[in-house]
Amino acid sequence: MEISGDSAVTLVWIVLGTVFIAPVALAVRVTYSIIRARMLYIPMVVRIFLESPLFMVPKAQPDAQAEDLQITTGDGLKLAACWIPPRAPLKGVILFGIEFGSNRWSCLHYCQSLLDAGYAIFAYEPRNQGESEALPKYSPLHWVTGYEVMDARAAMNYVASRPETIKMGGFGVFGISRGGSALLFLSGDNPQVQCIVTDGIYPTYSLMLPYIRQWISIYVKENSWAHDYLPDSVCGWFALGALKQVENEYKIQIPYLENEMGKLKKKPFLMIHGAEDRYIKPEVAKKMFDISNGGKRAPVPVHHEFWLIDKAKHNEGIQREPELYPTRVRGFFDRYLAHAESPTNPVLASQAIEAPASQIAPKAAANQAVTPQTNQAPTPQVNQVVESVQGPKLSGPRDKHAFTTP
Questions:
Q1: 92 near 119, Cβ under 8 Å?
Q2: Are 71 and 78 in contact (CB under 8 A)?
Q3: How far, in Å, are 75, 85, 238 from residue 209 at the CA level?
Q4: Phi and psi for 349 in degrees, rounded to 5?
Q5: Which has fewest Cβ within 10 Å: 102, 163, 197, 292?
Q6: CATH number, domain at 379?
């Protein structure tokens, strides 16, 4: 059977249409579905972003030997703070960042062994928290905003100006959850910061991504079969859209911790995290640790440690390891702060070596004491309270540090 010339041309067009038009139509359909999903999903992401989970936070009573004081932020607010002198000859100065909803005296829950060892502790309460001055129409979130970065800068400036800090040539940082996250934004660029210990810190953008992927099929029913195949870039697009909407609506800026972690590579850094943390998955914490090392495939610097505490939930490490936790934290500061034995020290910088990636403290190795523990004062009575805050109503000046997207 012969095919006429017209029929052959028609057949060619049919084949071309199948080969080229069908993929284009599919691409248009996928693009439409993604855009529609974004329109439907972002309001849900914003609502979830503004909800505050219930945290069990420690609050302690004032220390009789402490100096109760105030510091002033860049926009003129007075923040409540305290300086607790050491109970032994001065070894070093530590700036403590408290967790969301706690008070400045909660540092005593974590720092008894440090005080006994000769470390002075400075702690402060961010704006609109505890006894610090409140910014009108601002209800803090459990996320770090530009306001918390501004408060952290004021705390660092004050600690750096203390005669004890000047005598010691710098200070260490010890931060819990949001308080630690806020201090990390500034620690890499501050030459006075000799070493850093954090527990339960978290970014904003990277923390949102796994939840966006987890919840999208719940809130967007259309084409739910395709949600498992969305690339991270699309989920990131959703996250950035939600963050931009929050920033515009509430007149705040949300910084990206991912941009700052790489600056910690040359500074001694102990990251502590709970293996059973339901809010900040260990994978998110490990990603931040990898960035601080120079990347996932980069060798782990010998002065960087990642301690994942078995069975610990968010900020529960000290409860799960009540003896090892203070011992290991004190040992870290003894190595890198008490005697200025830090890679930031010009003498030791040339001697710093790299450790293999396998040296990221597994639990068996992590549970070995770093230094012997001295007689420790009894931990003060700490009241566990449930804190919840309303959604933000934000206005006023904003800190301009690290607000480019990752």
A1: yes
A2: yes
A3: 33, 42, 9
A4: -60, -40
A5: 163
A6: 3.40.50.1820
